[in-house]
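Q: Sequence in, structure out?
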Amino acid sequence: MQDVAFFLSKLLWWPLKPGTAAVLLALLGLVLLWRGRRWGRWPALLGIGLLAGLVTLPLERPLIGPLENRFPRPAAEPAHIDGIVVLGGAVEQRLTEARGLPALNGAAERMTEPVALMRRHPEARLVFTGGSASLVPGALTEADVARQLWRDLGVPEDRMAFETASRNTHENAVNTLRLVQPKPGETWLLVTSASHMPRSMGVFRKAGWRITPWPVNYRTGHTSLAWLEESFPVRLQEFEWGVREWLGLSAYWLMGRTDALFPAP
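A: Exactly. Output:
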């Protein structure tokens, strides 16, 4: 059942991606108009309108802002940290495989923040969870790239552990809990992008792990006009990420992978 859900999530997301959907609707409308179907103007206007809205308005911010603000960072860093769980999604497997150097994407803070925490807390263990979220996996897993990066940054091998089979956030929680087996009273931090934290906390709680959120990789700030400095491809990518997170929250709630539609602190 998990394999079916994983395959469907990948298959259905491609046409549902706002950028792809807008282009497909515009093309459909133009084809219908060319064939004399006047009602084709509606899908054409909808597709072109969505793209125009993303060009002229900060549509991504109302989507991402509530997600990022749902779980604020703790006011003070815990005095003692037993471990840090880092979710995959910040590394580029195929580029690393092609060039031989660990490659990171826009969520690089997921990989750098844990190293800083490790240096301040020599008692902490570092656990990375992530296999491959691709329908056609390459030779390297996300965990392979993380191991290479952190080893190059000087993290001792005996302080790191890697969960290599997860393909999504639900599997991250279940597999990592099985690997780590945290003891009552231990303090573990969960490091992932702030906009991904609500879904992550929901599934970790459902799995039975009361873990402390440690969000990174914020995409919204307090300057209302900052979006004017961002290019259209960046705004489109962030809008698609926000849509994906809200769809993921809804799907996980319907599938029983989280107890709340919008998990809260």
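The chain has a mean pLDDT of 90.
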